[in-house]
Amino acid sequence: MTPQELEAARDRLVPDVVAGGLRVLFCGINPGLMTAATGHHFARPGNRFWPVLHASGFTPRLLHPSEQEELLGYGLGITNVVARATAKADELSAEEFREGGRLLREKVARLRPRWLAVAGVTAYRTAFGDKRAAIGPQERTIGDTRIWALPNPSGLNAHWTLATMAEEFGRLRAAAEAD
């Protein structure tokens, strides 16, 4: 994909992969330009979402971003805190995160997944106004939906390795299976 094609995807919206009553609704920060250009969530080659999803046991095989609709068959879905595509999440304002959090709460109330898994604790803190939130299950719920803050799977998040990220996603999977 050329830099011009990526730039042309700026501000594009990417449809959610959702259905009512999901086991886990994964929530990214916002679509990157590669995601917006392809229409496939977590599409940037360095993003570890798909490998971590498989390594943690959520999917029986490694899915390609173009196979994202298969997630619905596993009771999984994908949305974002902020719908607008940008090159970097730091291009989003705190107000966009807060408004995204409000819209996300409405979406979750409507779809009623068992778990909302926000991939990025900083995005969770801003969107939900919870400055002390840490990785893991949160006390807050949205109706009956429980919330889990996950590490951001971006390749830029060097604090988490594929293995440690898969371990944390695996904790969520075990909790979701126990429900």
Automatic annotation (TrEMBL):
UniProt record, GO biological process: base-excision repair, AP site formation
Enzyme class, spelled out: hydrolase
SMART domains: UDG (SM00986), UreE_C (SM00987)
Domain called Uracil-DNA glycosylase-like: residue spans: 15-178
Superkingdom of the source species: Bacteria
EC number(s) per entry: 3.2.2.28
GO terms for MF: pyrimidine-specific mismatch base pair DNA N-glycosylase activity; uracil DNA N-glycosylase activity
Keyword Hydrolase on entry: yes
Record keywords: DNA damage, DNA repair, Glycosidase, Hydrolase
Name this polypeptide is given: G/U mismatch-specific DNA glycosylase
Organism: Streptomyces morookaense (Streptoverticillium morookaense)
